[in-house]
Design a protein that fits this description.
By secondary structure, the chain is mainly α. The chain is built from four helices and no strands. It has two domains: about 15-85, no CATH class; about 95-145, no CATH class. Helix content is about 30%, strand content about 0%.
């Protein structure tokens, strides 16, 4: 299987506009679809990975491609340019007991120190968790300002 691209890919599909409708035009959604791809040889098979991802999305969301307004593809090289060589899309190095509801809270024990992102807050993954933790943090800060 090494180097081969499957016809259907496993996807995680957070929809952050469910949390903040202003992220997309009225009546539309911001959908983020992600899948694991190999670091090696990705560029060689780039179009096949994109095609397989789009076909899988079309199966999940019929007429998806007909309604697509905009698309951006993030590659392993893009992630590497942000996080270093073979960077992970997972942020902080968590231990098993720091996941799920045991993740670091948005409000930390140090007064005035808050964290948001894909590794903080109570539930969700990736962008979904990042959006939720940012919304929760802004509510905490706004409540303190009153």
């Amino acid at each position: 299987m090494e180097g081969e691209v499957p016809d259907k890919v496993d996807l995680f599909i957070p929809i952050p506009s469910n949390y903040d409708p202003e992220l997309a035009p009225k009546g539309k959604q911001l959908i983020i679809a992600g899948t694991a791809v190999p670091w090696e040889n990705f560029e060689k098979n780039r179009e096949k990975w994109i095609s397989s991802t789009m076909e899988t999305l079309e199966e999940i969301f019929p007429k998806f491609q007909n309604n697509l307004m905009w698309m951006e593809v993030t590659t392993p090289k893009d992630i590497e340019s942000i996080g270093g060589k073979e960077a992970s899309v997972v942020g902080v190095s968590q231990t098993v007991d720091q996941t799920g509801v045991n993740r670091p809270a948005t409000s930390l024990p140090i007064e005035g120190l808050y964290v948001v992102g894909g590794d903080a807050g109570g539930w969700g993954i990736g962008t979904e968790l990042a959006a939720k933790s940012a919304i929760d943090c802004s509510k905490i800060i706004l409540k303190l300002k009153k």
